[in-house]
Amino acid sequence: MTAAPSPWAWQPPRPSRLVEAASLMRLTGPDSLRVLHGQTSQVLEGARPGQCLAACSIGPTARLRALAEVMVVEDGAWLVVTAGDGSQVHQALDRVLFPADQVQLGPVIEAVLVTPIGPPAPTSPLPCCEPGTWQPFPPSDGEGWLLGERLLWPDGSPLPAPWSELAPLEPAEQERWRLRFGRPAAPGEINGETNPFELGLADRVSLSKGCYVGQETLAKLCTYDGVKQQLRRFVALSDGSEGDAALTSAGTPLTTSSGERAGRITSALALPATPGESTRVIGLALVRRQTLDEPLLWAGAPGSGGLGLTLSIPEGFVAPPVGAGRPA
């Protein structure tokens, strides 16, 4: 009997587009990058116009508020919130601005971020720019922006060609793609309780740029081996019963085969059943470091009373940095 293919190998069979909600806000003035440098995890002071830098918006204890992209412009920056609550980020920035700061913070503007997925379109090649940069689109009037291969576009406006010609992914397909790469989302992974290192966002964090909000906590997590859990994706086999659905819902605690506490589920999605196969449930879970190497974790009682989960590292996960208190 041929083994079922891994659910993580799934690709849409056609050129498609993934459309995600985004919020953006304009910061204008000579102190814009200095303020953002101190309020996000990324190195921004000295950034050049045309750069697009991935960052985390975090609080004083390094709890993640949102994922963001910073588009640097001549007189300031656009802050684009791609996951999390844009209004919360706006309020946090507004609270730290003083009259002496030469910054004007604009309102929150709703937008969509469009990512091409699947095989390339046979016609109408998609415009793009170099990774880590942005460009106005269309070049003439700049209604939207290119962020590498992605398009940032005003919410409610019809998408321009050739993005409008791509097939939109269904909501379940979008979620499946997100889970494959382990991209954090609210409220499962972004909820005021997690930090960037736990969620595999180390590439968005600088430990050498000097003082910024949450920097001391992140430095301690690195130096003293303080990252106690990490995000993993899971696959579980279910008979489709309501009890199994409850076992794989967000917040369900996980245990090892011996009953040791192992973590909790943060997101889950039931895949369509195939002939002769049990329903597969995939998702994300925060797993305690002591149990990351377990071959199987359990939702519910280990054995016949629960569901076994096999773990793997999400494709987009970047491991926490190795600090002085932690062997490589």
Please, could you describe this protein's structure?
The chain is an alpha+beta fold. The protein has two domains: 16-168, Gyrase A, domain 2 (2-Layer Sandwich); 229-312, Elongation Factor Tu (Ef-tu), domain 3 (Beta Barrel). 14% of the residues lie in helices and 33% in strands. The protein is built from five helices and 16 strands. It has helices spanning 32-39, 86-96, 171-181, 215-223, 242-247, and strands at residues 16-28, 52-58, 64-73, 76-84, 104-105, 109-117, 134-137, 144-147, 150-154, 167-168, 229-238, 253-255, 261-270, 279-288, 297-300, 306-312. Strands 1, 2, 3, 4, 5, 6, 7, 8, 9 and 10 form a ten-stranded mixed β-sheet that branches. A six-stranded antiparallel β-barrel has the order 11-14-13-12-15-16. Strand 8 and strand 9 (150-154) form a beta hairpin. The protein is globular, with a radius of gyration of 21 Å.
Descriptors:
328 residues; alpha+beta; Gyrase A, domain 2; Elongation Factor Tu (Ef-tu), domain 3; six-stranded antiparallel beta barrel; 5 helices; 14% helix; globular
Tell me the series of helices and strands, N- to C-terminal.
EHEEEHEEEEEEHHEHEEEEE
Helix content: 10-25%
Beta percentage is 25-35%
Tell how many strands the DSSP assignment holds.
Answer: 16
CATH H-level homologous superfamily name of the largest domain: Probable tRNA modification gtpase trme, domain 1
Instruction: Return the average pLDDT rounded to an integer.
Output: 90
Shape: globular
User: Main sheet?
Assistant: 10 strands, mixed
- Name of the CATH architecture of the largest domain: 2-Layer Sandwich
Total tally of structural domains: 2
Number of helices in the DSSP assignment: 5
CATH domain topology of the largest domain: Gyrase A, domain 2
**The top level CATH class name of the largest domain:** Alpha Beta
What is the distance, rounded to the nearest whole angstrom, between the alpha carbons of the first and last residues?
Answer: 42 Å
Low-confidence stretches: 324-328
Q: How does the helix and strand content classify structurally?
A: alpha+beta
Output the radius of gyration. Answer: 21 Å
